[in-house]
Batch of 3 targets.
Target 1
Amino acid sequence: MNCLSRKSAILQAGRPPCPYGNVAAMQDDQLGIEFHPMTRIEVKQYLNWFTDPVISARMFRPTETWVGYVLDGERPLAWVAYVGNAMVGHIQVEYYPEDVCSIALAVDPSLKRQGLGAKVLTKFVREYLSSLRVEAFIEADNVASRKTFEKAGFRQTTSAPDEDGMLKYVFPGASQ
């Protein structure tokens, strides 16, 4: 069932209908997902996503210190994903020694539960992080995020949450 046929259910849930059709059935090349480093203008758009209670509870709200850290460094740490002219995702990357990085993902709240997050994540990792060991740390009770990362190919590597309540996931890539 595509998201346009679910219009009434989506509107009742407080989300607008999906402008892209059946995202879950589309291949990455059909969606035309594109990435670039986040700009200050896009930070303002991203801040609007924090009206969503899940984004607000799960992600750190950007501050000026964060903006300087992720935008003005040696290499981009904050990225945005676009489909057409719509910003659909935010990706944050932290780089560590020995070719390791961690990644976090947020999807435009109006586009959640359509398979877009896994497509954005998979394409970004393959295009920009393929030579690195890519890790993600996800709250154990965040089932939607865990499923998204698993659908993108990440594998859970810890059986129990750490002291912060996080489970570790790793993408099977070049630097395992």
Target 2
Amino acid sequence: MRPIKLEIENFTVYKGKHFIDFTPLNFFVIKGKNGSGKSSLIEAICYALYGKVPRYGNSKAHKDLLSKGEDWIFVSLDFSVKGKCYRIEREYNKKNDQSDFRFYEFNEKGIVPKNFREDELETFLLNLIKLDYRIFTRVVFLTQNQFEKFLKANEKEDRSKKREILNSLLGLSDILSSMKNIIKEKHKEIKKRLEFIKFSLEGLCCVVYESLNQLEDQINKMEENYKEFHTAESLESLRKKIYQTEELFGKLKQKWEEIKKKLKKKEELNREYDELSYEFNLYETLKNDLDDNKFPEYLSSHYLEILKERANYYLREFSIERLQFKISGDELHIIDCNTNYERRVHSLSGGETFLASLSLAFALSDLLSKDAPIESIFIDEGFGSLDKETRENVIKFLNLIKENTNKMIGIITHMEDIANLFDQRIELHKKKGASSIKVIF
């Protein structure tokens, strides 16, 4: 997905109509002071596609995105996927609390509207972009500064913090939380069922034991009746004894059928108990592993290995084959390929940390997007953490990035000296609570 044109009206700090043509932009900076609406531009793209923005989670927070004092929002995004162009428009009216959208496809006939319901649009976009909302926000909008925090965390004291940062970046935190709740409920459900089966089996055992005693009594009566056949004084008396015996036999047969059913039920309950006990032990193990953070640690280690492999591709390119990642004892280290010297990541210089964290951010984008047609990336750069010497040489790092990627890249910054290094800029200026946009290329 590559943005082509963005039109916004009364969206957050952007009162009135504003327009950005991304067509001439390839490697550019979005520059503005804090609060000028840098993130809002990215959110507008997200809002157009999905009807929601990261800062408000999964809710349709239309009212919260309205410019102060306004009643109507309009956002229009032209974008392309593998060369084919589309347009999506969204609007919201505060007065009647109604939102609407329109979707268009560009083809030889012109701009053709597509009649979608909301759920149909979501399915169409998922098949087109190959990313749902949750993954899209992690793949296209990279938080390089979060990887910097991950790299700078003390290895011993902040091990859990590093795991939390990585799982959050990978989108695993919400999944693990949901998994924990599901496993907890399933564990509780199975435990309750096992207790019920155990209680039922105890009751069945008592009933079967009582039925067997009754069966034994009936058999004894039949034996007594059989002995009396030889002592019958008349034919009528013999017929009466035979009738009584047949009646006892019928009750005996009925009782035996009842016992067989109860024994079958007992067998079924025993089998279910054994199966559920096995399942219960699995959920017990999973529950304990999640409570003890064993499973989250396993996932972190597993994905860190995968992430490292892909990040090494970018780090070697960005550092001109000088640096690469290595995992030692579940921790990320750096190897200087020129000297073969290995060191911990928190010992990296400002410039090296910048390249390392950016390499991890690009790797994360690749890992999460898989085969999705991602043709643009926006990076929250984190230049503010760089030392003065590194910032003076940052153009070298930026050129390395530009030369070694084939995507449209937008870098977000509030720093004037960094922004001036770019020929292509989207400059934001805030005055009297509202921002304006100027595109330079």
Target 3
Amino acid sequence: MASPGTMIVNLVARTEQFRKELSAAEKKLTQTFENAKEASQAFAVALAAVGTAAVTMALAADDAMDAIAVRTGQAGLALAGLQDSFRLVAARAPGELGQIAGVIADLNTRLGMTGPLLERTAESIVHASRMMEIDPTVMVRGLSRVIGNWGIEAANASRTLDLMFTASQKTGIGLDQLGQALVQQGPPLRMLGFSFAEAAALMGKWEKEGVNAEMLLGSLRLAIRHFTKANIPMREGLDQTIKQIQALGPGIAATELAIKVFGRAGADMAIAIQEGRFEIDTLVKALQKSDGAIKDTAKGVYGLAESWITFRNTLILSFEPLAPVLDRFSGHVLPRLGAAVTQVGKLFELVFRPEMRLAVITLAGAIAGALTPSVILAGKAIVKTAKAAYLALAPFM
């Protein structure tokens, strides 16, 4: 049997070894815990990003659907039909979902459109507004006012927009500016027998050539009064007057005739006629062949940017079924979840106090050790340390 001195020396040596191995085990456990924590945080961040994107897209789709319901007042099957049209247009025309929803709603409210007619017109508006850089909802309002003012059937809305689009291309007049002019000057132009195409051609040509349209239109209003008093058919009287002034050429005779028909601004009117300000036949023929102009132009400029927008719209709308789930979640789960999070927060405050840190690290390391190879190695170190402790204490047992 060893002497007491030898036993003490051996005990001290083995105790020191036990302390070293315990320290090494603690370091391994701490590193394992940190690695596990970083991995879990990275996974949580990725999962949160995916979840946030899904929720954001679902809410965007739901907002667009809600906008249609709010702005039209429709419900049931009627609302479902409008929302189906919205989905189709959003997948084909490059526009923001909120704006497309506004176009669908306003066309239904202002012109009573539904189904294929609604979809065809909405698609034209979205394409035209993007190419002309005009807010599509503003374009809807302008188009509906033009249609109402000129008594055009809603079924011809797309053709009307094609004509206005072509007039803008040919003359440079803004599409919104042209619509406003056609509404403001529509009554006198119709009284004088101008067709819609002729009126659009005049407004565009005068804008392009820098003509004082207000002065000319004021003169035409006075001509209406003159022809009415003389019991002369409006368009016949205007065409004859223009031909006579052109035949007379510059001079007193032409000016006197113009003043007689068009009032005190007759002199300016005579000059305008002789300068060809009313020669619109070529332009009118071009406008009469404008059907499909927006669609054809859109095809020519459709590229990566437009494809991305329609793909994004389709992707967002694919998350629409998630919206009802989120509604239920927000109404029933979130209040309870908030209370639970508060309690978890209090638990974390207790667990992560400085005096609890080593215990938490050791416990987390033991749990992670069952799942990760690195912690298995640390577990072996613990076993080794326990064995060393046993050997050091064995003589006293």
